[in-house]
Design brief:
By secondary structure, this protein is mostly helical. Helix content is 37%, strand content 6%. The model has no long low-confidence stretch (mean pLDDT 88). The structure holds heme C.
Length: 189
Amino acid sequence: MVYKPGALMLMGGRLILMRNQIFIIALLVFTFTNKGLSQQSPGLGVEATAEEIAVLDISIAPDGVGLPDGSGTVSEGAEVYAEQCIACHGDEGQGQLNDRLVGGHGSLIDDAPVKTVGSYWPFATTLFDYIRRAMPYLQPQSLTNNEIYALTAYILYLNEVIEEEDIVNAQTLPDIQMPNRDNFIMAYP
Ligand code: HEC
């Protein structure tokens, strides 16, 4: 017998349901009979406090919304880098055990592109977010905001994005134009 998938079938006056049709009907029945129940809480857990949420709510938007108080310079960043980052990212961010953070400018169209903060990342603000959220790799979220601003300044300086005397803080960071910025398209402009 030939039948179309999804079509209701009548055989000998009896309705034959395909497996997917049974599922959809079951879902509809469940949805409508369950309406009252779904509004009740299962009564598990406790509501998170404002302080608990603040610890997790640390995302920085590309335009800098969410950046905290504090500031840092290139020379301060070089000191923190030597203590906290050099073992994994190498001298002046050249990469050693782990990712290279510096250089590769203009290499994205090569056969072997070198993607670094400087050659690839579209927003300087992401660097603050990333370091605060994830680095140093073994003690994430252990740095002060001033240290993070300083490291951000140092890595941008090594990538020739800012000058040695520039200060990085919530006001200056969003205005820093990254070299690869215009090769990204904003999905939600
Ligand atoms: C124990 C080793 C280790 C230390 C120390 C460390 N990192 Fe990293 N870092 C990593 C690893 C591993 C990655 C890649 C993580 C991934 O891709 O998930 C990374 C990635 C990064 C990246 C992103 C690079 C990219 O292009 O995606 C930045 C920026 C960075 N680290 C900055 C720092 C800074 C600043 C410090 C010092 C505060 C630091 N890291 C200390 C291991 C380390």
